[in-house]
Amino acid sequence: MSPSSLKALPSMDELRPRTVTDQIFDVLYDRVVNLTLPPGTKLSESEVAAQMNVSRQPVRDAFYRLSQLGFIQIRPQRATTVVPISQEAVLQAYFIRSALEEQTIRHAATTLTPAHLSDLNALLDRQEAAIKTDSFAEFHALDDQFHHDICKAAGLEFVWALVRDNKGHMDRVRYLSLTFGAEFAFSEHRTIIAALQDRDPDAAAAAMRGHLGHISDILARLRIDRPEVFG
């Protein structure tokens, strides 16, 4: 197989269809993150299956995946419950994410094209619009897309797969912080873009490190404002 033919290969995401389990997992994941399902919520396989009009097996599989992430606790013969936010788990997620994204942004600073940067600026315009309408769920999704699109444009989409699999606990805290921190996060995105436009790897890495590093301050504030969500 020649190098040119390799370029035509689809990504694994294109090859892998979304299963029923994937879809159930995504719905429950989002609701745990945005606290529609707050800590302490009891979850029932049969109730979820009935409400989503599916059999219990894909629900059981989705529950298992959520438990592996540390989002829910499954106890035989007892209620399955959403677990409180763990500060330790949040900081572990931050450590992994920061290490991966700092290296990615360094690479992106020397590889992104003007077209990539134009697309990222357009995405930030959508983020700004979401802030103006207090659409925090939309901003959260666009925030994720911003980080994903940098990885993808840099040719390092596999990094985002690793980040996505490890950032769940950070997501819960980030979502809670949007009521007071969305505008600040948006301004930091602008700083990251500026460093990319300047093709300055050191400035880009510093901007990303500072952006993600605010998690400690956010945790400190939320432990005062929302102590009931922490374990």
Could you say how many structural domains there are in total?
2
**What profile does the largest beta sheet have?**
3 strands, antiparallel
* Straight-line N-to-C gap: 53 Å
Low-pLDDT residue spans: 1-6
Q: Indicate the percent of residues in helices.
A: over 70%
Strand content: under 5%
**CATH fold group of the largest domain:** Four Helix Bundle (Hemerythrin (Met), subunit A)
Number of strands: 3
Q: What's the CATH H-level superfamily name of the largest domain?
A: GntR ligand-binding domain-like
The helix/strand series, from N terminus to C terminus, equals HHHEHHEEHHHHHHH
The CATH architecture term of the largest domain is Up-down Bundle
Spatial strand order of the main sheet? 1-3-2
> On the 0-100 scale, what is the average pLDDT?
91
CATH class of the largest domain: Mainly Alpha
Give a summary of the structure in a few sentences.
The chain has 231 residues and is mostly helical. The protein has helices spanning 3-6, 12-15, 20-33, 45-52, 56-68, 87-111, 114-132, 136-153, 157-166, 168-197, 201-213, 215-225; strands at 42-43, 72-73, 80-82. The protein has twelve helices and three strands.
